[in-house]
Amino acid sequence: MRQPRALRRDAALNRDRLLAAARELFAEQGFEVTLDEIARHAGVGVATAYRRFANKGEVLDALFAEQTVEVAAAADAGLADSDPWRGLVTYLETSLALQLRDKALAQIVSGDRIGLDQHDWNRQVMAPKNRALVARAHQAGTLRGDVTGTDLTFIQVGLNAIMARSREAHPDLYRRYLHLVLDGLRAEPGVPTPLPVDALTSDQTHAVMGPTTAKPSTTRD
User: Fold this and answer.
1) pTM, rounded to two decimals
2) What pLDDT score does 5 carry?
3) Could you tell me if 96 and 197 lie in one domain?
4) Which class for 196: exposed (0-12), middle (13-18), buried (19 or more C-beta within 10 A)?
5) What CATH number has the domain bearing residue 35?
6) pLDDT value at position 114?
7) Domains: count for the chain
8) What is the C-alpha separation between 142 and 187, in angstroms, rounded?
């Protein structure tokens, strides 16, 4: 007869396998994946998965802090930079690079199909950091005076839309538009910043803007 300790150890291993699989699938596909798909990717039975997690939302809750800590750290690094403008730019560059790597993180930052806890993180953790980044750049006279902390959120939402369309064929394309936006944020625009990525051709643009194959879902499945 198996001992309770062995059963607990097996349960913990299965939970770890499920979280590792969810981490990979969320990064690759976003929140569209189902708990059944997570179980298959983990090599764990579906019934076992539902014993560990009632739904996909519980998996997301378990990974949430891990997914968001790097974005918060990027903002903190920007606030610690002695050059407020450079700190703001580096924050946006780092945050967007993280979101390119992890589709689920991009959805969290954009508020796309996420739960109350994730919305609270955007409002309670990131909003004050965004306001502080903007305030420092205003005080330094490097950021146009009508920019607010919420603009940093919507800049990322807009660039995420580009990223969602182009990440497979042209993963760096969003950086072109980030630099265009940054030039528009400067208090005293000077010589335009050289764009780091070439524009797409007409054919490439039509290919990127073609129909997507994403399947509908909700976060809490």
Assistant:
1) 0.80
2) 58
3) yes
4) exposed
5) 1.10.10.60
6) 63
7) 2
8) 5
Q: 179, 193 in Cβ contact below 8 A?
A: yes
Most confident range, picked from 75-84, 98-107, 110-119: 75-84
DSSP annotation string for 44-77: --HHHHHHH-SSHHHHHHHHHHHHHHHHHHHHHH
CA 116/CA 174 separation, integer angstroms? 28
Question: Cα 87 to the chain's mean position, in Å?
Answer: 19
- Residues contacting residue 219 through CB under 8 Å, at least 6 positions apart: 31, 56, 57, 60, 113, 114, 115
Are residue 134 and residue 197 in the same domain, yes or no? yes
Residue 122 lies in domain: 65-208
Cα–Cα distance, 39 to 97 (Å, whole number): 28
Are 108 and 29 part of one and the same domain? no
Q: What is the CATH number of the domain that holds 90?
A: 1.10.357.10
